[in-house]
DNA sequence: TAGTGGTCTAGACCACGGG
DNA sequence: CCGTGGTCTAGACCACTAG
């Protein structure tokens, strides 16, 4: 494990365990250096990672402070993470509506960058305790995901890709707009036709930049909330 | 100007000027080092910045590639930037509905972290060529923004804070959900009651972590699209 | 196995904040 | 002014990719 990740994890643990809140002042950079015996750049690397994740913020000339206790956002879909649709919420059941192979993905998926070659088409509904949560229609390029079964698709496809195929999801883009539900969508989500919904088109890429998944998601407005964050040009 | 920012800007210029597309292979790290006479870490810092902004991606053992031509997203509201509501779209007019001082912000704003002290309340409508775009209801803490006038509020408040007050917006959080419009909102947006809308609560902080602005935005679903992106734990 | 990006260090110097 | 975080370098060594 890389040193900066070890340190980052330690700090996260520390914040969770002590239940620290926004504004709490963390140890200084040189204290972390001494405690762990790391170089300054390595400590800054760890802090930068946490800064990007929204956990802390650094103030030049002053110190390092807690921004958010991770785990305070359980109910939210985190748009700024490389996840399909659920953040920390694990009480989600999956109902598979369709799994088939296609010679070619639909045009809109190819326009978003999915290779124009054979793919899997997966249609699922995700259900929380309080009802249907999201309709998900995904296309997986067989170039990157050569095999999918009903069983895999009933669980987490991303976990399968990571663990069984040993591939890492590296980055994603999400395009959103608000729509009125069609009759069919409303039925799946147990809502009324013309009820509001958020539609998200997602594009996921592997470490080599290859696009392997393009999806269209339609969320139930009654039980879905979303979260996004940004930091100004932070690094080192 | 910092070296890594100079390099980052040069690369962006290069991509725009040559109109490069996703997958284009950029010069190697050591070529940038030699061309600019920079150290390796500095070059990596610049590339990391661009990676975080979604402009490029680095593939270990292979090279550096273009991910997106900046400026390909003009029509989208970029949720992953520290902007109020418009990304690159500059054809936006502002209609000020209200500007007043309050002893205390409303409860929900204080819960989001706005100091429980005097503030400005600003209500505005943003209008694009094709009609009303968003209703914006903002609260600015007088601790950070001691003075606002009608004139300032008719322009860009963020520009004013940056330029006149010399303060930097450092990070933000955005909480979203989909709603049905009330009668009043519908009238402002020239839509119908119960039409869909995206409501976003935004929290903005300065470089010292101080929260200075909490806002509630309600977007017109007919002319608003949103964009978000993420990268897996990138740094150095 | 050569080439390319990633991690890490030690240390010099810079820039900002607060007393 | 001192302390704290930020930038930058040179260079060693690691890890992954591709031919």
From TrEMBL, chains A, B:
One GO BP annotation here?
negative regulation of DNA-templated transcription
Q: Does the keyword rRNA-binding apply?
A: no
What's the name of the protein? Transcriptional regulator
GO MF assignments: DNA binding; DNA-binding transcription factor activity
**Pfam families given for it?**
GntR (PF00392), UTRA (PF07702)
Query: What Gene3D superfamilies does this protein map onto?
Result: Chorismate lyase-like (3.40.1410.10), Winged helix-like DNA-binding domain superfamily/Winged helix DNA-binding domain (1.10.10.10)
Q: Which UniProt keywords apply?
A: DNA-binding, Transcription, Transcription regulation
Q: Which domain of life is it from?
A: Bacteria
The residues covered by the HTH gntR-type domain are 1-69
Question: What PROSITE patterns does the annotation carry?
Answer: HTH_GNTR (PS50949)
SMART domains linked: HTH_GNTR, UTRA
């Amino acid at each position: 494990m890389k040193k900066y990740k070890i340190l980052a994890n330690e700090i996260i643990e520390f914040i969770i365990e002590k239940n620290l809140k926004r504004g709490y002042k963390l140890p200084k950079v040189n204290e972390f250096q001494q405690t762990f015996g790391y170089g300054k750049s390595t400590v800054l690397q760890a802090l930068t990672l946490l800064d990007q994740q929204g956990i802390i913020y650094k103030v030049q000339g002053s110190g390092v402070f807690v921004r958010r206790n991770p785990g305070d956002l359980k109910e939210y879909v985190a748009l700024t993470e490389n996840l399909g649709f659920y953040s920390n919420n694990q009480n989600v059941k999956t109902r598979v509506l369709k799994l088939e192979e296609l010679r070619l993905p639909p045009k809109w998926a190819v326009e978003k960058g999915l290779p124009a070659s054979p793919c899997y088409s997966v249609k699922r509904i995700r259900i929380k305790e309080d009802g249907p949560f999201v309709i998900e229609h995904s296309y997986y390029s067989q170039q990157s995901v050569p095999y999918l079964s009903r069983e895999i698709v009933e669980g987490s496809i991303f976990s399968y890709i990571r663990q069984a195929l040993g591939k890492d999801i590296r980055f994603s883009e999400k395009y959103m707009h608000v729509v009125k539900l069609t009759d069919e969508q409303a039925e799946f989500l147990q809502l009324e036709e013309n009820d509001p919904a958020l539609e998200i088109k997602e594009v996921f890429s592997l470490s080599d930049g290859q696009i392997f998944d393009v999806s269209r998601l339609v969320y139930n407005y009654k039980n879905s909330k979303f979260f996004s964050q940004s930091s100004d040009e932070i690094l080192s």
